[in-house]
Amino acid sequence: MNKYIETVLADVRAKNADQKEFLQAVEEVLTTLAPVIEANKAYEENAILERLVQPERTIIFRVPWVDDKGKVRVNRGYRIQFNSAIGPYKGGLRFDPSVNLSVLKFLAFEQIFKNSLTTLPMGGGKGGSDFNPKQSPHTPGKRCSDGEVMRFCQSFMTALYHYIGADTDVPAGDMNVGGREIGYLFGQYKRLANEWTGVLTGKGLSFGGSLIRPEATGYGDIYFAENMLAKRGETIEGKRCVVSGSGNVASFAAEKLIALGAKVLTLSDRSGAIYAKDGISDNMLKDIMHLKTVERGEFADFAKKTKGVKFFKGANSWQLADKIDCAFPCARQNELNGEDAAYLLKHGCTLVGEGANMPSTPEAINAFLKAKIMFSPGKASNAGGVATSGLEMSQNSERISWTREQVDNRLRDIMKAIHDNAWEAAEKYGKKGNYVVGANIAGFTKVADAMVAQGIC
Q1: Is 242 in contact with 331 (CB distance < 8 Å)?
Q2: Which of 224, 265, 302, 397 shows its CA 20 to 30 Å from the CA of 442?
């Protein structure tokens, strides 16, 4: 390994020993950068790596709120403003019990390169809270009411609004932060700041949102896969695909796959996975999306009333089908491990397109790279969501709204540009076809050059 990189990694490990997700993300990026570091001595001379792995600002705050029974509850809120070299901080807010400093630092670090790859002027950030909207604090098995979610969001934004703004930091939605939560957050910001500005993306269409935004991450993942397949003279039509997750990313990735003639065999949630031997149909997918977004139900009940669908309690999507062409992990980090990777490869998988953030473990990634299959890291193939958030920011600034077709065409173009930039960077540094190396180098170079140009800051 390059000595400079080795020294920086040792320092990061010593200072963040308890932050395993963050360390995993940093190691995954830095260990691929030796060729570009050695080719440009200015990066080491300006301590780019030492500065790159340190957030510009970490904000931690308490979030007190009152539940429906009148009891005061307290959660912890975060915003990691990691790097603003190429634009205002940009990245989602995640509400989930798994949220902690390590998880958010890993997500914000990944966001730096993802946003750089989009070709849009956006820096990297991430935030959220350990608040769980899926579990009422006073009634086991029930979700928080709309009123409880609203009061939490208002308290969260009351603490956060000092640090964000259209030209400073523009949060968006992420896990468990959808249109409802963004609406409450935006309303509270507007009340506190006394201004209407595009400070959040993922807004409703009636108050500045963009068409295609909910679909963008899932669609973008499939558009990236189409570009990978085109390099080998193939198309997605007829491919047997396994997809994990059941939120926006997974649902709209499945929707796009079905529209393009692929067969979607699986989806999953926290209770387990469903498997449809003959593929999930359009109508089935509509029922699933209604189940998840309106009824907020589980797959076990769906499988009981749906012919041709089996539910596997506690299972993931990876080891259910006998013949697999493509896999799209769209749920959460480290959901696809080495054993899963071995199963996928054994059963014919030749393409893995990450729709979630860092969903494959290092063991799984190594297996895919060793097998030389088409593998796209999340920072490249799930960048469609933040890219469309950037397009929403542009529309807000101009006070206009683009049509669905305009946004979708721009998204397709951006995903092709991300693919091509990653492909060309890998080829330039002797790693042709390795999208991990290509995406890391392409994303890094733009940010590093901006940091050098701006001096020591």
Answers
A1: no
A2: 397
Residue 1: pLDDT band (50, 70, 90) is confident
- In this predicted structure, the answer to whether residue 296 has a pLDDT above a threshold of 90 is no
Cα separation values, 442 from 113, 308, 388, 411, 437, Å: 8, 44, 20, 19, 8
Same fold: 55-196 with 216-372: yes
- For the chain, state the CA radius of gyration: 21
What homologous superfamily does CATH list for 1-54+433-457?
A: Glutamate Dehydrogenase, chain A, domain 3 (1.10.285.10)
Three-class secondary structure assignment of 237-255: CCCEEEECCCCHHHHHHHH
What dotted CATH number matches 216-372? 3.40.50.720
Catalytic residue among 90, 126, 256, 292: 126
* Catalytic status, residue 126: yes
Using the predicted structure, report yes or no on whether residue 133 has a pLDDT greater than 90.
yes
Contacts (Cβ under 8 Å, ≥6 apart) of 309: 274, 275, 276, 280, 284, 302, 303
Fold entry, domain 55-196: Rossmann fold (3.40.50)
Which pLDDT does position 98 carry in this prediction? Answer: 96
- DSSP E strand boundaries for 348-387: 351-353, 374-376
Closest CA to 136 of 127, 144, 128: 144
- List the domain boundaries for the chain: 1-54+433-457, 55-196, 216-372
Q: For the packed helices 384-398 and 216-231, what is the interaxial angle rounded to 10 degrees?
A: 120
Q: Alpha helix (H) ranges present in 206-349? A: 216-231, 248-259, 282-290, 299-304, 338-346
Query: Which structure tokens are listed for 2?
Result: 């390059």
Find, among 380, 392, 456, 364, the residue nearest to 418 by Cα.
380
pTM of the predicted model over 0.90: yes
